[in-house]
Amino acid sequence: MPWKRPLSGLYFSGWSVSRFEVMSGSVEMEVQSDDSPMPAAPKSWMRNAMERSGPFCLPDFDHRPGALHSVLGQIQVQFLFRRNDIGRSKAEVAANFINNRIPGVNVTPHFCKIQDKDEDFYRQFHVVVCGLDSVPARRWMNGMLHSLIEYDDDNTPITGTNIPLVDGGTEGLKGNARVILTGTSACIECTLGLYPPQVTYPLCTIANTPRLPEHCIEYVKIIQWPKENPYQCEIDGDDPAHLCWIHEKSVERASHFGITGVDYKLVQGVVKNIIPAVASTNASIAAVCANEVFKLATGVCKPLNDYVVLNQSDGVYTFAFANEKREDCLVCGRKANILNIKEDAKLEELISKLCQDDGARMKNPGLTTNVNGKQMTLYIATVPSIERQTRPNLKKTLTELGLVNGAEIVVADETSPMSMTFKLNFI
Ligand SMILES: [Zn+2]
């Protein structure tokens, strides 16, 4: 006979879940006994995630009403908003909506950048769910969670320090979700190749041989606007007058080249770099993420291993696969980061190596080192006064800067919350 028991963080060995429901004031799960084979025993990380007490963000997680509390990114926002919410913080509106809609649930909004919170903030949580809108933000969160892991003498993550990360993302009719058991499975940085570089159009195509409506809009945005400067200011993608001007000029240019398909919505999309959000894709991916959190929090079955894709652009297609963890990963690899570079290379070449697609894919790295026991700033672009002072170093060779084979360079970049150390290996 089925009966109800409160949702517990313990592993339900030998029980199958027939129904999970959120009831007024409490989260309860209906379970029933059956003769199906016992699920495999959870690994230590799983037990750790499951048996920690307190809500997802508090040490005394006791699964009582209101216990569900986790970091919500931007997973599925448009269902939660109404017209009179315009102008209010998305996080606050979404939290209010959910709190009012589902009694017993307590979502705490934080209206700030993810980078504004420190290690102590993230350390409180038992699971982190990301629905972020950019790759750098994902890399940052991935770096943050990995920086919290403590390892024992055998290089095994110490249970209690590894927080699982569930990540979801959509792009139009396509989406993906993944579960990262930090320190154990492949991390975001291991699989950077999954994220294609942002679509950009070569300037020569835009200027001379446009073939797509996007080429015509890009031309007006990049070349015609600065030349004619109709409003004596930079383009504001939220200003209808600016968009109308760009639309009009783009249509003119498109008709000149016999191209059709330039409309206001496309202009808005190209100018603001918008990828249309499709509610069904977002809902499916949000559901996968929620399902994975449920599995992690209860241990009813194994979590996704470790990546699932959804493609609805031509029929419906889905596929799951496991990513491979890279031993030389800059974030989760436990090896020293070796940077192979020519002895006579200039500092600017070293920096471009750090930014390359097949390298660390950094954005704007700042570099410091230690020469003869003295701290030395090699180059930092983000602080104008230091940038001016260190700019001449870019043209110097590594040896001219006093760097020797095996020297360590500390690199800070916006893609990671922690700085990384690279050991130079002259080739
Ligand atoms: Zn990794």
UniProtKB/TrEMBL annotation:
GO terms for biological process: protein neddylation. SUPFAM superfamilies: Activating enzymes of the ubiquitin-like proteins. Pfam families: E2_bind (PF08825), ThiF (PF00899). Pathway: Protein modification; protein neddylation. Residues 339-427 form the E2 binding domain. Keywords: ATP-binding, Ligase, Nucleotide-binding, Ubl conjugation pathway. The active site is at C204 (glycyl thioester intermediate). GO terms for molecular function: ATP binding; NEDD8 activating enzyme activity. Gene3D superfamilies: NAD(P)-binding Rossmann-like Domain, Ubiquitin activating enzymes (Uba3). Chain: B, domain 2, Ubiquitin-like 2 activating enzyme e1b. Chain: B, domain 3. InterPro entries: E2-binding, ThiF/MoeB/HesA, ThiF_NAD_FAD-bd, Ub_act_enz_dom_a_sf, Ubiquitin-activating_enz, UBQ-activ_enz_E1_Cys_AS. It comes from the Eukaryota. It is an enzyme of class 6 (ligase). It catalyses: ATP + [NEDD8 protein] + [E1 NEDD8-activating enzyme]-L-cysteine = AMP + diphosphate + [E1 NEDD8-activating enzyme]-S-[NEDD8 protein]-yl-L-cysteine. GO terms for cellular component: cytoplasm; nucleus. Its EC number is 6.2.1.64. Belongs to the ubiquitin-activating E1 family. UBA3 subfamily. Catalytic subunit of the dimeric E1 enzyme, which activates NEDD8. This is NEDD8-activating enzyme E1 catalytic subunit. It comes from Cloeon dipterum.
